[in-house]
Amino acid sequence: MDDKLFHKIIDDLTYIPQTHKFLVTLARINEPLLDKRLEVFSKHITKALPNASHIFWSNGSTLVTGKFEWMGEIEGSTLVISLNSIDEKNHTAMMGFGLEKVLKNLDYLHLLKEKNLFGANVILNAPYQSAALSVEFIKFCKNRWPLFNPNVLPFFKWQGQVSAGEKERQLSKFFIDTAAEIATLGCGQWFDIHVLANGQITKCCIDEAGYQAEKFSARTHSILNLYRKSQHLRDRIPSRGGVSSCQTCTHLG
Ligand code: SF4
């Protein structure tokens, strides 16, 4: 996202009353720490939107000494690590790189937590592949990094054109017993708004394509007006089974 668009969106958000708390995440299908502007952008948000809390994301590979510690100084922030697996082969298959560096980085991050030098809450995420692997993941993380919070979530299928994640979702079998029940639920994503780097908003966090029309562009429309487009969902919170394009989705994020 270019600087001009970033600042335009943040300016739009300053119209939110200061009494209303909300979350901001500078991540969108990327490794956020590879963007050298992350610290500057985050600190700008802290000043411009004092009612916003930050959720940072990383795959753990970029948490190197001197590059990320500033996150822990932002009050009320959370850092979510997509650890995904504690097995070298499995991790490489999912992430495209090995575990060694990530584990080392997480050891360093935990050391900072132990010394009270990193204030942010740290969450370690992994997808549900089986009950046994989930238990193993939680146990390993709690033993090695007791100050972090491990978390297992079901696989989801990306919305948009690629449909990635469907094979893994099927293999995990998680949704077979739960799909009917999930169809009766609303979705927490209806309370969010997501913006791609080109300024187009998306339906939700698992929509990689976004809406293409200009009327969905944060470049030319206030982000708050774009958020109003989904107000009917927040007002009624219907079952997702009755909402077109959400009908078969089992994502619980
Ligand atoms: S139900 Fe699924 S597709 Fe619909 S908004 Fe939620 S996560 Fe996105």
Pattern of helices and strands: HEHEEHHEHEHHEEHH
> What structural category arises from helix and sheet content?
alpha/beta
Q: Provide the β-strand percentage band.
A: 5-15%
Per DSSP, the total helix count is 9
Q: What would the principal axes of the Cα set say about the shape? A: globular
Q: Mean pLDDT, rounded to whole units? A: 93
Highlighted features:
single chain; alpha/beta; five-stranded parallel sheet; two-stranded antiparallel ribbon; 9 helices; globular; binds iron/sulfur cluster
Written description of the protein model:
- The structure is a single chain.
- With 253 residues, the protein is an alpha/beta fold.
- It folds into 2 domains: 1-153, TIM Barrel (Alpha-Beta Barrel); 157-253, no CATH class.
- It is built from 9 helices and 7 strands.
- The longest helix is centred in the middle third of the chain and has 15 residues, at 100-114.
- The chain starts with a helix and ends in a 17-residue tail after the last helix.
- Iron/sulfur cluster binds at residues 159, 187, 189, 203-204, 206, 240, 246, 249, 251.
- Residues 159, 187, 189, 203-204, 206, 240, 246, 249, 251 line the site of iron/sulfur cluster (SF4).
